[in-house]
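Lab notes, practical 5.
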Amino acid sequence: EVRGGQRVLYCSGQLSVDPEGKPMHPGDMPAQMNAALDNVEALLKAAGFCLADIVRLNIYTTDMDSCLKSFDVLITRLTQAGCRHACSLFGVTRLAWVETLVEIEATAVSG
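Output from the prediction step:
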């Protein structure tokens, strides 16, 4: 439940890509998770939000086992930022680039 939220930001899926859109860290799930979350955080900051404002995450992965083994990468970072969110994790056949293993969508609310 969100009470008193006045602004909502819906972030489209973010991948492990550099500013030019080139995939980064092929085969390295923890590094891709961090890079994708870096891209989410950059979107949030550009709109005046922060990681703590995230209320919902959808995470898509092409390798569920590897994602679950590396999930603490995301949880630790989000917890340290004060984020308390709902989350869904989906296994998918493929993402935009074959090299990408994980994609993160976020919804953020600020009061």
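Observations recorded by the TA: Helices lie at 29-46, 64-80. The mean pLDDT is 95.
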